[in-house]
């Protein structure tokens, strides 16, 4: 028997309770959410012809026969360093092919917008042809541009695909002979999210939108920190004109990765402006995290000397101005000029990602002082490192408490049993201390980032069990997010991940549907659900939390049955008059190892049914290994 006290609000549930954590890992940005289809569009990768092939040219013979592409530097200055000089000797044969991000996903009858810069140098190249081709070189769409100018000029054209193909490439051929310079060759599908230019992949944004996330944390993760300080994420380089955003090597390019991706770079076409815009689109509070002057401690651990920390702190202050300042401020003007005169209503800022130890505390203090002096209403998120317990964690927490830290970010990547066992983790947290942001967590079926890890049902329902514990402690736990969020099936470095995609499709894992169930049913007020006066924390493998929603006038119970048998439970709800029927939303797999896949993307997804409410009693049979949300309208 479970008892629910509907009348008494224990605490308010924060609108930020369930959010999303975005990091450009696993091709999440370039090659994923960011809909650009050309890899290395401005020839800026470490090897400037990465992503580009010249199948008919023989560089060793100087390409006397067909032609050659050479990368040339504009100058040492500026942010767009390179361009490509193409010399055509014999128009019959030379081809330049862009391979996309593990191919290009193209859809039948969809239009694709091509843009580029070109400058004629000598001879007469009269036409440049662009074609989608499949692996057999079959043409699946074509367009061309006529280069007219000897100065850098912008050209645009549109291709329509004649077939759906996950592994298309873009072939470029030339008519005439001569030399021409090319740069910023870019290709976007017309069906980006809300049809934006430089836009995002619609199916992926839709999945995020459907979560109704309370916040969007960006841009990471370790990517914030960089392998070295020079490689940290610098938000100022990610805003303004897209062509002027300087490409950088991705932190997940090589190291700490089961699947090194030497062709993993950041174009920053999806930059801070776009992250703020995405937050707004999906109704999430933006939560940017910035470098605190410490490179990833799993890499070099490079530290900025304390007497050189000012530019890092200034970046944080300027970011707040970028988000919230009006157009009379320097950074507010940058935002307004980018097409968003209204402020983005930034409320939170994170200082450092996953840093720990005295080096972190020393740096955090400087940020805290400067941010609070100028922006006392901005809430600062601090970190405790990657440890959910132990000496480093204890030290961090102790010091942060002394500093009156407002919100502390905790991370845990543990096995599923840990999640079930630690459901009481926050029961004894100091109610007067810092609030908690469970900023990165995911149950690991094998081991952190293992290639064998699965997004299986046991991991998902164990996370759900743990989430009932976070929800029961909503007074302390005010933001939570699964991590990582997105992974390209051929470009990942980390497992498990919440949403998997290829060039054409995407699907939510069971973990995604757990997040969706909790987030879509977060309610407004926490109420007590107990068994014999105690919280339901795994007795008979049952886990439970309860809320009411004062807007929809519903009581919402979340019950996880982690047992191999179904359990028939009677629930007494006191303190409200209830409708005689409720809606049950049930999530369950076909056994603990069950998963979703591209072929069966919604195999494990919420199913709704009705149940009877007799006065103030509900008798419900919770299936084996299930997560159930029971919703009852109050009269
Ligand atoms: O989510 C993957 C990584 O895990 C993040 O980049 C980092 O913060 C954590 O170690």
Automatic annotation (TrEMBL):
Gene3D superfamilies attached to this UniProt entry: Galactose-binding domain-like, Glycosidases, Golgi alpha-mannosidase II
Entry-linked Pfam families: Alpha-L-AF_C, ASD1_dom
Group of enzyme by EC: hydrolase
One GO BP annotation of this record: L-arabinose metabolic process
GO MF, one example: alpha-L-arabinofuranosidase activity
Domain Alpha-L-arabinofuranosidase C-terminal, first and last residues per copy: 439-626
Catalyzed reactions per annotation: Hydrolysis of terminal non-reducing alpha-L-arabinofuranoside residues in alpha-L-arabinosides
Keywords, sorted A to Z: Glycoprotein, Hydrolase, Signal
SMART domains tied to this protein: Alpha-L-AF_C
InterPro entries in alphabetical order: Alpha-L-AF_C, ASD1_cat, GH, Glyco_hydro_b, Glycosyl_Hydrolase_51
Known EC number: 3.2.1.55
Superkingdom of this protein's organism: Bacteria
PANTHER family: ALPHA-L-ARABINOFURANOSIDASE 1 (PTHR31776)
Family classification: Belongs to the glycosyl hydrolase 51 family.
Protein name per its UniProtKB record: non-reducing end alpha-L-arabinofuranosidase
């Amino acid at each position: 028997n479970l008892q629910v006290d509907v009348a008494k609000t224990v605490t308010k549930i924060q609108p930020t309770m369930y959010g999303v954590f975005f990091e450009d890992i696993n091709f999440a940005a370039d090659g994923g959410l960011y809909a650009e289809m050309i890899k290395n569009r401005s020839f800026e990768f470490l090897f400037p012809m990465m992503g580009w092939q010249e199948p008919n040219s023989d560089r060793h013979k100087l390409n006397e026969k067909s032609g050659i592409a050479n990368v040339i530097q504009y100058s040492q200055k500026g942010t767009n360093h390179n361009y490509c000089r193409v010399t055509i000797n014999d128009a019959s044969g030379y081809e330049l092919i862009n391979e996309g991000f593990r191919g290009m996903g193209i859809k039948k009858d969809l239009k694709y917008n091509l843009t580029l810069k070109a400058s004629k140098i000598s001879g007469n190249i009269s036409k440049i042809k662009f074609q989608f081709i499949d692996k057999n070189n079959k043409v699946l769409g074509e367009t061309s541009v006529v280069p007219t100018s000897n100065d850098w000029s912008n050209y645009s054209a549109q291709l329509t695909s004649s077939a759906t193909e996950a592994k298309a490439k873009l072939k470029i051929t030339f008519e005439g002979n001569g030399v021409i310079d090319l740069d910023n060759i870019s290709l976007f599908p017309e069906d980006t999210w809300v049809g934006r230019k430089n836009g995002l992949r619609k199916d992926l944004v839709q999945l995020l939108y459907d979560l109704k996330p309370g916040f969007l944390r960006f841009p990471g993760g370790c990517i914030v920190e960089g392998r070295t300080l020079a490689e940290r994420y610098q938000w100022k380089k990610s805003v303004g004109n897209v062509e002027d955003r300087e490409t950088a090597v991705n932190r997940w390019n090589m190291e700490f990765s089961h699947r090194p991706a030497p062709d993993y770079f950041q174009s920053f076409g999806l930059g801070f402006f776009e992250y703020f815009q995405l937050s707004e689109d999906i109704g999430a509070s933006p939560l940017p995290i910035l470098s605190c002057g410490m490179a990833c401690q799993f890499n070099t651990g490079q530290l900025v000397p304390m007497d050189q920390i000012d530019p890092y702190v200034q970046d944080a202050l300027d970011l707040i101005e970028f988000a919230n300042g009006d157009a009379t401020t320097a950074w507010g003007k940058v935002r307004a000029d980018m097409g968003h005169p209204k402020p983005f209503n930034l409320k939170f800022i994170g200082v450092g990602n996953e840093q720990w130890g005295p080096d972190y505390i020393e740096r955090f203090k400087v940020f805290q002082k400067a941010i609070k002096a100028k922006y006392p209403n901005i809430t600062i998120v601090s970190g405790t490192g990657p440890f959910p317990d132990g000496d480093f964690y204890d030290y961090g927490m102790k010091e942060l408490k002394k500093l009156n830290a407002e919100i502390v970010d905790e991370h845990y990547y543990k096995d599923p049993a840990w999640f079930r066992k630690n459901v009481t983790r926050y029961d004894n947290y100091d109610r007067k201390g810092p609030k908690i942001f469970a900023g990165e967590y995911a149950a690991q079926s094998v081991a952190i980032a293992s290639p064998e890890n699965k997004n299986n049902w046991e991991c998902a329902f164990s996370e759900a069990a743990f989430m009932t514990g976070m929800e029961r402690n909503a007074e302390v736990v005010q933001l939570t997010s699964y991590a990582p969020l997105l992974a390209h099936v051929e470009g990942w470095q980390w497992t498990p991940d919440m949403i998997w995609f290829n060039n054409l499709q995407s699907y939510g894992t069971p973990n995604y549907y757990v997040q969706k169930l909790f987030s879509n049913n977060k309610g407004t007020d926490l109420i007590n659900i107990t068994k014999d006066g105690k919280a339901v924390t795994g007795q008979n493998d049952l886990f439970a939390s309860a809320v009411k929603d004062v807007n929809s006038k519903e009581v919402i119970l979340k019950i996880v049955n982690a047992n191999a048998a179904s359990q028939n439970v009677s629930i007494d709800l006191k303190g409200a008059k209830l409708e005689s029927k409720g809606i049950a939303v049930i999530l369950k797999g076909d056994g603990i190892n069950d998963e979703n896949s591209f072929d069966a993307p919604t195999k494990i997804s919420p199913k709704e049914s009705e149940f009877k409410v007799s006065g103030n009693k509900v008798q419900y049979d919770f299936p084996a290994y299930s997560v159930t949300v029971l919703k009852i309208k109050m009269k």
